[in-house]
Amino acid sequence: MILYLSMRKTPFAIGEFYHIYNRGTDHRDIVKDLFDKQRFLKSIIEFNNIEPIGSIYEEDYRKKSLDTLTIKSKPKNKLANIIAYCLNLNHFHLILEQESDKGIEKFMQRIGGGFTRYFNEKYNRNGVLFQGKFKSIHVDSDEYLLHLSAYVNLNDRVHKIPPGNACSSWDEYLGKNQSDEICFKNIILDRFKDKEDYMKFAEDTVEGIISNREEDDRLSELLLE
Predict the structure, then answer these.
(1) 193 C-beta neighbours (distance < 10 Å), count
(2) For the chain, does the N or the C end have fewer beta carbons within 10 angstroms?
(3) pLDDT by residue (tens digit) across 25-78?
(4) Is the backbone of residue 15 left (phi > 0), alpha (psi -120 to 50) or beta?
């Protein structure tokens, strides 16, 4: 399956799934170290709340300790369900299910503003961090949702990123990271016999994407080189 076949931009609706992605302006890196990655993941957890939570900037980066990034509490009333995610050095992908009116727009506005402030303060820079407004594509079929989850979970393989330079929800899907679960995985995993069945499906899907990428330049926008 080629992912772009089901792409269709539509207004956000409650109960619908969307592929959300963006990259650094001028292709610049949006994370530079492990602390930045942890800070981004903290953002997608704590900003996912119908109730305003204010800034989570605090003294996180100044203390230079990952202990300061412990999640205080997970939202009870979410703006969106996070189905899968990946964070590479210069871009990210999210699969979201909208849970409340304008939930995805509010969620992404908080992430964009909050993480940009953190990044600019830490690296003594000004201006925008991301390349314009986040991009969104309506996921309009179950088949597309399943294949997209594979693409997002194994995005580092698509881009041939060296180990340690990217993070994703892949380990969480395989049950290797249960201490701080972020994703609403059952919508994907319930379609398979077990985790091993999903793992094979995902790896086969990504192999197909990799083999097709050199033959079809229409994948270039989605792949976010």
Answers:
(1) 8
(2) C
(3) 999 999 999 999 999 999 999 999 998 765 555 545 445 544 445 555 566 789
(4) left
